[in-house]
Design a protein that fits this description.
Distance between the termini: 16 Å
Number of strands: 13
Largest sheet: 6 strands, antiparallel
Radius of gyration: 16 Å
Strand content: 35-45%
Helix content: under 10%
Oligomer: single chain
Strand order of the largest sheet: 1-2-10-7-12-5
Amino acid sequence: MKKIETKLKDAYIIEPQVFEDARGWFVETYSAGKFSQLGFTTIFVQDNHSMSKSKGVIRGLHFQTDPAAQTKLVRCTKGNIIDVIVDLRRGSPTYKQWIKVELSAANFKQLYIPQGFAHGFLTLSDDVEIQYKVDHLYSKEHDRSIRFDDPELGIDWGITSPILSQKDLDAPALKDSDYNFIYKGESK
């Protein structure tokens, strides 16, 4: 398992080792021991699984505010997506910066997203499935979103007319959001 730095402080691409032969493949997607060896101390408490029927769906940008903020470990298990994260931690050296990473069932990559980041993705194929671990349980009280097309962030999604939920259509701009993240140094 490899941990690859991104341009965003504390966010990483995780590449698990894939064992392939004539029968198919095997991959260990998560191991507490291996994650500990990579320097992560996150304890995941919930697994989530979502399916999007159509190409062109954007889900996000979503997050939970403190004290229920979530670290996520995201992977695409069917189809492919562009995964986007935004650093919302005031004081972070990468505050308000974003990256996008292609995750797919074929490339096995995962994205480690620390607390204090907004997260969203664009489906690049039909019948996409995403699975992700979180370190805090879902809290409706702390659930938030910001507009995927917020001009302050300027995210290039590569699509002009995405399929959106009502929640994402109604999401506020970043400047109107009540996110409350403060950068506290390197997190794991």
